[in-house]
Amino acid sequence: MKKIAVINQKGGVGKSTIAVNIAYELAIRGNHTLLIDLDPQAHSSELYKPKGEVQSTIKNLFSDPKFNAIRAIIPAKVHENTIKNLKVIHSTIQFARVAEQVSSRIHREKILHNHIRKLKYDYIIIDCPPNLGVITVNAIYAADLMLIPVSYDKGALDGMADLIGTIKEVKECIDDPYLIIRNLFDSRNKQTNAYVDKELYAFKENLLKAKIRKTESLNQSRITGEPIRIYDKQSNGVIDYEQLTEELQEWLNLKPEQNPANLANKIKAKKMKKELQNKV
Prior knowledge:
This protein has an eight-stranded mixed beta sheet with strand order 3-4-2-5-1-6-7-8, sandwiched between helices. Helix 1 packs across helix 11 (236-253). The protein has a single domain, classed as P-loop containing nucleotide triphosphate hydrolases (Rossmann fold, 3-Layer(aba) Sandwich), CATH 3.40.50. It is α/β, with parallel strands linked by helices. It has twelve helices and eight strands.
C-alpha cells in the first residue's frame, strides 16, 4: 500500500485539484484507491460526494481512537455515478474544531496512521490543509511520499524550507521522501517561468518531469465538479495528469538505492562525514 500526501502550507497552489485527479487516474488503471480529505474546507471530497448527508467523516477518526475507519469509507460518486476502484473518506467544516482539540493528545501525530495502517488499498491519496499544523503532521507521518505542488508565481517557494524541515523532522530520515510538481504552467509567461525554474534548481533531484499546464478546461472541471478526464477527455489536462500519475508510480516502485533523491542525499552525507574526519 502506497500513501501519498499532497501538501503545501501555501493556499491556491492546486492541492485539491491534484489530489482529485491523481486519485481518479490511479483508479481507472485498476488500482484500489482511497482519497482522504484532511482539509476542513472539503474541496477534494466534495467533488466525489453523493447526494444527502455523509454520516461519518474524517472528524470521527480524529475524535475517537477506537472508531473503525472502514465506517467512514464510502464509494466515490460523480453526478451520482459510482467511480470504480475509488473510495473516499470525506471531510467537514466541523473538523476544524476537532483539529484544535487533538493538539494536546499524546502521540497526536500518529492518529491517522493508527487508523489506516491496516486498510487494504493499492494507493491512498491524502489531501492536506494549507498549513503545517497537527493535521498536516499526521499526513506526513502516515505517508510514504509527500507531493508538493508549486505554482508559477513570484512567491512560489515561500515557506519551502519550513515545509521540508517539517518533513525531515517528522520522518526522522536523511532521505527526502518528497517530490515537487510544477502546477499552473503557462508557456506564454517566459520570464516568470525562467524565474521559478531557476529557484527550483536547488531541488532538481526531487523535481518531477511532469508539469500541469494552466488550462480553461481544468478551471471548468472544478466548477462542474468532475475530474478532468470526465469533463474533457481531449484536454491537455488529461495528458498532464497521465504523465504525473505514471511518473509517481515509477518513483514509488523504485528501490531506495535507485531513487535519485536518496542517492544525492547519501553522497552529501558521505561528503559531510569526510569533511568532519578531516577536521579531526
